[in-house]
Amino acid sequence: MCVSQHYRFTKTVGNQGNMSAQKGGTMTLSENTSVNPILPEGAIAKLRSLGQAREVAVGEVVVSQGKPMVSFIVVESGNLSVDVRSHVGVSHLGDHIPGQFFGDVDLLSGRPSVISARVTEAGTFLFVPRTELKQLMAADTQLGELLLRTFILRRVELLANGHADGIVVGSRNSVGTLRIREFLTRNGYPHAFLDLDRDKEVQSTMDAFNLILEDIPVLILRGQEVLRNPSDAEIAAYLGLNASVDAEEIRDVAIVGAGPAGLSAAVYAASEGLSAILLETKAPGGQAGSSSKIENYLGFPTGISGLELASRAYTQSQKFGAELLIARSAVQLSCSGQPYELKTSENTSVRCSAVVIATGAQYRKLQLPNLEAFEGVGVYYGATAIEAQACGDENVIVVGGGNSAGQAAVFLSQSVRHVHILIRRGNLADTMSRYLVQRIEQSPKITLHPYTEIVELRGGGHLESVVVHDSSTATDTAWNIRHVYLMTGASPNTDWLRGCVVLDDKGFVKTGPDLSPQELSEANWPLQRRPHLLETSLPGVFAVGDVRSGSVKRVASGVGEGSLSVHFVHLALAEG
Fold it and tell me: Residue 50 in 3-state DSSP?
């Protein structure tokens, strides 16, 4: 393939910029914005003080696909070939020449590498341990910016060009297939998809791995390992997403939930020197991570997808040293004193001196008897490109009048035949941002149906039609709709907290001034002071974002509360 489609692709500086760096020119790090930049000698000198140089021989594999990257590698002399192995064989991504370096986002997280690196010309390589590199990136803003940007661009290139470490074999009409693809996509894991119903090569792949229809969906990793309908926890284990986390360590703070509020808390806690660990059931981003485009978030005038915002925030947290446990739900919080213990869904536990609860909220499910039968096969709770692909050129329904529903409708209208928005009230003005209301009103492919709700779902293995009720006319009508997006209200994820912290009548966590003296007395609040602004009825345990009673259900407010909570975490730790 053409080099410009691969790992060596450079975006701005080009050969002249690289030449000046090699010759000791004055090019600054910020000017060097390629996917494979050459480091100025000053930066290499700093790295030499932290690492160890050694001679490498032709054929030596310095990083193996599927194994953790333990070191950042700078090529001082020689040549390093970058490759990826998939179900179709080994693909060459490019080469690193003297002055260039090997590494991507997996180096920051300690996760197994999705690519490999092999010496093709003997020389001298500089190996810098990942812990020392992360400390240098935090201390040296300019170098840290270059490396972080390069790591992100490299992962984007892998995803964009289809260089897959894994492949999902399944059907667009399979709930299991949708779940696996969403898990991999939202965790930024490079993978391809073979559709049983559309792709011609699917049969040869199934034959090569002795697969039958009953095995579907299947995840094939690195062209070797075959996982048949694996759970999210099994995928996380096989991919080594949690391999670098020490379960015995007592952290300063554990953050439950990696939505915008949780990620914000992790970034600020880690950047201020606290040992922080995130627990997340699915993937970074939470409910906001499934948003197609957020256009009213400060600093992004053209908008940003929830997935991209979450990915950037997660990488930022890794830069400062925060840890992340994926596919681990908190199922119980000890209330007996510090250090607190969080028991997880995988029969493990995390101990910490303080806790930030950021579990957010989930869309409220419709009270329909057969709803679960169609979840993932016609009924969806997010509107990303994966769900949109299943719709094709069909009519779809979006249920809900909030910003998430508006963003979904606008996004889907770009690819489907028509979008019908159903709301039980008369208009969108009180529940949706004006810019979204205007988009909806101006789009010929979106129709708003006020005073309307779904009362029945029909179909076999996939949703085939719905019955909607119009309360203004008291009539029921059957619509031939195969795809429905539910974005109605919010229910807090707090069942695991009952009996431990005070909740309001809807299940949201009460904090700070919202806690009455009587509630604090009944909760045996042990301190002379009242709870801090975001503190629950349990000292050193805080709640932020959508899960908190009385919070503003917006991404920006969640980010603000997450960052503010770290100030109170410091105060609580000082008391202990």
Answer: coil
DSSP-based three-state secondary structure for 568: helix
Beta strands 116-121 and 361-362 are: unpaired
Taken in order 243, 244, 250, 255, is the CA torsion positive or negative?
Answer: negative
Query: Would you state the pLDDT for residue 119?
Result: 97
Report H helices in 356-433: 371-374, 385-391, 403-412
β-pairing verdict for 463-470 and 475-479: antiparallel
Which residues of the chain are under the pLDDT cut of 70? 1-33, 162
CB 402 within 8 A of CB 555: no
Q: What is the pLDDT of residue 173?
A: 82
Pull the structure tokens for residue 119: 């010496």
Exposure string of 144-183, with b = 16+ CB inside 10 Å and e = fewer, is bebbbbbbbbbbbbbeebebbbbbbbbbbbbbbbbbbbbb
Q: What is the largest CA-CA distance in the chain?
A: 81
Question: How far is the C-alpha of 240 from the C-alpha of 30, rounded, in Å?
Answer: 33
Residue 3 has what pLDDT? 32
- What does the block give as tokens for 361? 């909220």
What pLDDT is attached to residue 248? 86
Three-class secondary structure of residue 51 per DSSP: coil
Strand ranges inside 209-287, DSSP E: 218-221, 225-228, 250-256, 276-280
Predicted confidence at residue 90, as pLDDT, reads 86
Q: Count Cα neighbours of 144 within 13 Å in the Cβ-side half-sphere.
A: 17
Q: Which residues contact 299 (CB under 8 A, 6 or more apart)?
A: none
How many residues does this entry show for the chain? Answer: 576
How far apart, in whole angstroms, are the C-alpha atoms of residue 213 and residue 86? 21
pLDDT at 247: 82
Q: Which domains does the chain have, with CATH numbers?
A: 3-158 (2.60.120.10), 166-239 (3.40.30.10), 250-362+491-575 (3.50.50.60), 371-486 (3.50.50.60)
Phi, psi of 24 (to 5 degrees): 80, 25
Amino acid at 395: N
Helix (H) or strand (E) holding 137: helix 130-139
pLDDT of residue 132: 94
Residue 334 to residue 317: CA distance in whole angstroms: 26
Q: Is the dihedral of CA 526, 532, 537, 541 positive or negative?
A: negative
SS3 content of the chain, % helix, strand, coil (to 5): 30, 25, 40
- From the list 375, 344, 338, the residue with the least C-alpha distance to 359 is 344
